[in-house]
Structure formats: C-alpha cells, structure tokens
Automatic annotation (TrEMBL):
Residues 328-408 form the Gliding motility-associated protein GldM second immunoglobulin-like domain. Residues 411-515 form the Gliding motility-associated protein GldM C-terminal domain. It holds the Pfam family GldM_3rd. Residues 31-224 form the Gliding motility-associated protein GldM N-terminal domain. InterPro entries: GldM_Ig-like-1, GldM_Ig-like-2, Motility-assoc_prot_GldM, Motility-assoc_prot_GldM_C, Motility-assoc_prot_GldM_N. Transmembrane segments: none annotated. Residues 229-324 form the Gliding motility-associated protein GldM first immunoglobulin-like domain. This is Gliding motility protein GldM. It comes from Flavobacterium paronense.
Amino acid sequence: MAGGKLTPRQKMINLMYLVFIAMLALNMSKEVLSAFGILNTKIESSNSITDNRNESSFLQLQQKAKDQPLQYGDKKAKVDKIRAICKEYNDYIEGIKTEVTKKFPKDKEGNYPCEQMDKSDEIDNMFYTGDKESAKGKEFLEKIRGFAGKLKAIGGSSIAEVEMKKIEKRFATEDVYSEKAEAKLPWLDYNYHHFPLIATVTKLTQLQADIKSTESDIMEGMFKSDLVAAASLTAYQPIVVPEKTAFFQGEAVKGKIILGKFDPNLVAKSVIVNGVSVPAKAGQADFSFGAGAVGEHEITGSFNFDENGKVVSLPIKGNYVVVPQPKSANISADKMNVVYRGLPNPMTISFAGISDDKVSASAPGLARATGNGKYNLNPGSGTEVKVSVTAKLPDGKPVSDSKIFRIKNIPAPLGAIAGSTGVIKGAKSRLQVSQVTAVLPDFLYDLNFEVVQFTFKVQGQPAIVVNGNRVDAKCAAALVRASKGDQITISDIKSKIAGQGIKPQTASPVIYEIQ
C-alpha cells in the first residue's frame, strides 16, 4: 500500500484521518493550556493568602520588638531587610509577567486568555537572542542564583541551617537532566525556553510563591527558635523558695523548689516592690528597703510588661522574718536570779524572732512598762516567784518558757552622820548641826532613805529616843556633859524609803567620837 498508487478515495480517507488526528491534538492542547491557566489562578490566590499571613506575622514581631527591644529588636531589623529583598524579587518577577502578557490582558474574573497564549515568542525574545541567553536572560538567572545568598548574608545564624539548605535547594539554578534530550540542559533552557507563554507565566507565579513561602518560613523559624530555646530544659534552673526566710531551732524547714528561667534579654517596663518603683534590669530587678520591726513581714509588688499594646502585670509575693540584731552577749549568773521585795524590779522579756505584740508574760506582781518587752516585777510574800512567758510563732504555733527568781528583802541600810558611816570623829558643835541619815552603798537601786527615829546615847548617860533626823534639845544637854574622847552612839535608826510603801530594816549604828 505504501509502494502502490493510491486511489482518489484512499487519498481522501487518508487526508480526513490526518485532519481528525490534528483536531484531536488541537483539542488536547487547549485542555492543557486551560489547565495551566487554572493552576496559575490558584497559585495567585494562594500567594495573596501568604501575603496576608506574612503581614500578620510581621506585625506580631513588630509589636514584640516594641515591647521587648532587647529580645526581638535584632530579629525585627533582620526581618525588615529580608522582607525588602523578597519584595524586590517579587516585584521584579511581576514586572517580567506584565511585560510578556501585555498583549493578553486578563478578563473581568482575572483569568488570562490561556488558549491564545500557546506560543513562546514573548519569553524567548526576552531571555534569548537566537539560541543564546540575552542580557535580560542573564540578569534573570543571576537574580535567582543570588537570592538565597542575600538572605543568608542578612539572616546569619537567625536562619536555621536546615532551613537555609531548603531555601538554597528551592532556588538552585544548576543544570538539569532532560530525559527527552538525554542530556543536562542549562536551568534557564530547561524551565523557560520554547514553552507556551501560559506555562511560563505559571512557572513565574510559582517562583513568586516560593519567594513568599521563604519569607514566611524565615519569620516562622525565628519565632520557633525562641520557643525552642524557651522550652529547652537548659534555659531553666531550680530555685529554692522557703516558706519563710528564718526558722527556729527544732522547727521543720518547709518550702518548695520550682523551675525558673532567667532571660537576659527580657526587661520589664516597671517593677514595684512594697509600693515603691525599683529599677528594672535584664531579666531581674534589685530592691532594698528597711527590715522593719522584729517579726514576719510580706514582700509584695509586680513585674509589669508591655504585651500587644497592653500592660501585663506579674504579681510578686514573698515574706521574710526579722530577728533582733545582737548588740550584746547574753551573760547571766545562774545563782544571782534575784528580785527584791517591795521594789518594781525592771525586766526585759522577749522571744528571739517574735514581735513584742505576740509575746505575753505573767507572774504575781508583774506589770507592763513603757517600751517593747519592758516589765516591772514587784514580788510579794514568799521566797520565789515564777515568771512564765508565752508567744506565737509566725506559723501560728504557740511556744512557752519560764524562769524562777529568788525573792529577797532589801538589805539593812547603814547609819550615817553627814553622809559618813562607821566611827566618825569631830567637835560637839558639828554633831549638833549634822543630819542623821541611812545609806545603802553599792546597791542595785538608788534608794532615798528618810530617817524618822533614832536613839542617842552619850557614854555614861541614859539613852535618848529622838523622833526625826536631827539632834534635839535633850541630846544637846547630854552633849554638854560629854568630855573629849567620849563616844556617842546613834543606834536603832528607823527610816522609810521615799516613794515606796515598804518599811526598811533598822539601820546599823554609827559612832561619833568627841574631839
């Protein structure tokens, strides 16, 4: 049949067959071209969504950089530059698309006339001169080839290594193996030479999608690195938080151990401690205030941060216990625990680490005095008195103690003439004008004895009882008969203590020798 002469009918059949095959091929081509158009529209729609997502992420980063410049300021500065690069490349590709499709405007629904974009002339004429790359083609190739490098130079270590490798692979421009040609072809030839225009436009739109995805991945990666660092156990340290900052011997030490994180880049807007503003530092704040009175005290306040345009306050709550500052040693003579009957013996009663308002003491004759822990003990009958003390610890538990004191009477005073005791020598005239007194030298209390009666006895003469504290007329008459060397004995000296309702013992005698 191939070598024979065809009949007119056979020629007609063959021609109709060829036309039929051509029509099938034409219909298939239209379907493929339409498919490229649909794909391009979907990618453009996806790009718009990515743009919105990128803008939202950037606004979040921008706000965080405003709230915490130390923590996010550097990242925001890098993202600014990266976004500028991505926009430059996206606009560059958009310019190419605009140039090659100016003869094929979109319809009202935003679709290209795909079936008319079946030739490659527009892009071939732009990227090639004959079969060689044109200046525009070389520019396009260098743009794509240098994109990943520019991002790496800006982002540095802020872009994870695995992410950078993905970006470099996404924008790789190495030669590509073609099965049809059974050889490696230059990247530009493999992707853009002799392709229908609608296919090339779709590929350029996909390239824009890669740029936008790269921008999104970088921003997400920067946030993710912060989250990973924050979640890493190496960012935490155990912090011991005792129930209080002072404990008594024998008391259970209670508290908790929590995991805390110190971030040197996190600076509070303000820090308030016990109503006073203190300087905020990187990740911390130092405070200083007076310890206050003995007892338990609270520490309250807040760490205040800016977050998304609002102030977020983190409460501060703690406590501490003030104990008395040691100013002297506690030294006591075990055999000298003595109080004197009839006197307001001053006492200081306290419990270390417990405020005075939570301490109470009791004993017969014990009364509060002015000042914290000050008491007066005025014992009555008996030979001993027990002082009991109770207090309430910061945790509410009671504690008690007691001590026994011996009760002693005030010692007997010494008789004195003009303040002198024992044997005194002088003229008769001096004795006649001197005052008889009673003194108690080297006693703990400064007592003022007032003599109310004494016995006056001149050697060889009857004793004379005198009411008062001075020699009377009878005593003067007896003195007239006294000679030089005679001794006058003043004895049975009775007195009272000024301001006290007790009767002292009789004072010891005093001897006056006439000179």
